[in-house]
Amino acid sequence: MKILITGGSGFIGSALIRYFIDNTQHHIINVDKITYASQIDGLCEYQAHEHYTFYQFDICNAEVLSQVLTQHTPDVIFHLAAESHVDRSISGAMPFIDTNIVGTFTLLESAKAYWSALPESKQADFRFIHVSTDEVYGDLPFDNEENKPSKFTESSPYLPNSPYSASKAASDHLVRAWHRTYGFPAMITHCSNNYGSHQHNEKLIPRVIACALAGKLLPVYGEGKQVRDWLHVDDHISALIAVMEKGLLGEVYNIGGDCEMSNLSLVKQLCRTLNELTQSQTDYQEKIEFVADRLGHDRRYAIENHKICSELGWSPKTDFTSGLYNTVKWYLDNPQWLKIDGDEIMKPLFSGSSLKKS
């Protein structure tokens, strides 16, 4: 098949591309704007590969987007292009509106026009997979309060709490509307927090590793009680493949790792793993520092993944302890990905002063 991936130079997109090229004969078309978070080095070995084509442009550019669709005639589109960092959306929401909402609208319009012009036989096989986040559902209580769901399901109401999650919720609604109104063959996925190699160091796990190796304090928001459901990126990729191959048009599939953990517990486990792998003379846990909490910080995310497990035969395979160990080892073996020296990303992304050490 020919598979077009928007945002293919990002963390999840590049992992998806590496999987396809290493394990299939599909031809991959990567469309990426290339922003600060793009991981160009993660795909450098594929630049001259016969089954890989890369285009650098903004998905808000309808003219170029339509040209690429017409030229390459993809059978599947995975839409992963998005601004994705909550902190940045709080300090400046406009890029999130532009890419996540206007960009999705532009892509849907171009893809619908392309799909409508296909022969009926190709129309029937075409798939559009919109990759979204569990954050569109808002948050969950720490304890199972009366009449409160214990996990997010595909029927959970949308209650986004940050500019980022609100922009992703809007993009979900657009995709659903294009399917319902025009019969556009789309599906939506919601994933929990991803981790693994090749992730940008503004995200929690690589950020903590980078700060630790740079001899800096390890910032944890508030008291670190916020709970997240962790999903290894390789398991996310296998879920997306299952949706592409077996998913039903118009359906939503939630992808969770069955691994709930508080931010503080995660950072402490990271520190223990770093202690083991680096044989540091200093216990990295002593570097944990609580800082002023993020504005509107969601309490807890947890995904009920029964639907994708029962209907598509998928399940997460990566044990978190071994997955985290291998992730830390990969960053230690590839320290250039952490960009420790002189990189502005090492400056705090949060506002407010330190509160106390753990």
TrEMBL record:
It comes from the Bacteria. InterPro entries: dTDP_Gluc_deHydtase, NAD(P)-bd_dom, NAD(P)-bd_dom_sf, Sc_DH/Rdtase_CS. It catalyses: dTDP-alpha-D-glucose = dTDP-4-dehydro-6-deoxy-alpha-D-glucose + H2O. Its cofactor is NAD(+). Residues 4-325 form the NAD(P)-binding domain. Coiled coil: none annotated. Its EC number is 4.2.1.46. One of its GO terms (biological process) is nucleotide-sugar metabolic process. Keywords: Lyase, NAD. CDD domains: dTDP_GD_SDR_e. GO terms for molecular function: dTDP-glucose 4,6-dehydratase activity. Belongs to the NAD(P)-dependent epimerase/dehydratase family. dTDP-glucose dehydratase subfamily. This is dTDP-glucose 4,6-dehydratase. It comes from Parashewanella spongiae.
